[in-house]
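Entry for the shared binder. Reason: the reviewer on the internal report wants the predicted structure included alongside the sequence.
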Amino acid sequence: MMRKCFNITAVVFTACALLSYAPPPAAAQDASQSTSATPYTIPEYNAFQACRAEKDPQALVKCLDDFVAKYPSSSLMQYVYQLYFPAYYQLKNYKKSMEYADKLAAMGDKLDQVILLSALQTHAQLFPLVFDPKAPDAHDQLIKERDVCLQGVKLLSQLTKPKDSAETDDAFAQRKKVTTTFFFASSGFADLQLKDNAAAAEAFKSVLANNPTDAVSEYRLGIADLGMTPAQSLDGFWAVARAISLKVPGDKGIKDYLRAQILAYETPGCDNQVDAQLNELLQLAANAPDRPSTYTIPTADDLNKVRQASNILTVITDLGGGGDKAKLAWLAICGSDFPEVVGKIIDIQTNPDGSIDFHVYTGATPEDMQAATTPNMDVKVWTAAPAAPPAGTQITPQPDVARLQKDDGIRFSGTLVSYDPSPFLLHWDSVKVDPTVIPEKTDAGKHTPHKVPAKKPQK
């Protein structure tokens, strides 16, 4: 994950970080002259210049090692460090490169601001390649990475364009903006590893304020929002969805992750209901960086309250009314089991797969049901075990239900699996008809319709 961060975050200022050195010191005066004019000797200066002229990074490191061994307290050390860390960078020894950038940064106020920024940026750029999350001091390393980045942000806010610079004001401001964005992205990632999600979220918001199409920072903002206590779930969902729309690397796996997060957040009655919500969220987030206050997803508690207040009549009323109330009701009720539903059979459809669809009407009173002529429920009952049972259904064949006829009353338990809004029809499966409402065997042509049965009294 850390290496991925380094590759994804565009290191557009590597050249700036590794090549923006302060000018080398002027030639030293002879040691016999006033030593107060220069803080180094001619041999010391010549040794440094010999290293500076070295083009091979391996030879340059050896030269610098020899210089430091001979002049351990040299006043030229800041220039020596500025040669060390790009040499080690060329050798792909990123740990040593970062080590010498840190030594340079530790000189603080002795450095020109640009040089200090170069050292800080080098640390931030190389950290993902050096960091070992299993190291005993991993936490301290992350703290230092965060602090280095925030120091870089502060210095950049104070940095002014040199008076003799030929660069335009706009170009200079753009370079500052890009580098500031890099520091914020790096500090935000360190904050994520430190589980300081609030700080990480603020850092990534700063990144996105400068670069609204940064898919990786958008994704990490979502992770930070979802990791807060309490979780900022809706904002987190929106940020992750927007990252997917921006083609964040690994977007397919991230989409699966987002679906799982929404599913856990609301626990709808049927898992597949999340798919429609996810598609809607992806479409909306693709066109808006920030979540509108009107966008919401019900919580698990919201849906539980609907379930607790529901019966078959409220379900029919809420679903039949359409709109947001119907959406909320169906999120809660889909897949729910009802232990006792009564109604009147309006018509019957016998299927070749061994099932019967009873088209049933249920209402508030037996009189209402007895007078009905159109169904509001499709009740599927199996008279024989199917060759290939539908996935997720519990089938207990009831061959005797074939004796039920049009206008008979019926009482059953079952699972709500879907509904048609117009004409309105609830669909039931995993149905068990109460045997007491199934007519006894009689001679052909002597069936007497059974009235709508009363509900069984609650114990």
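Summary line for the report: Residues 1-22, 28-36 have pLDDT under 50 and may be disordered.
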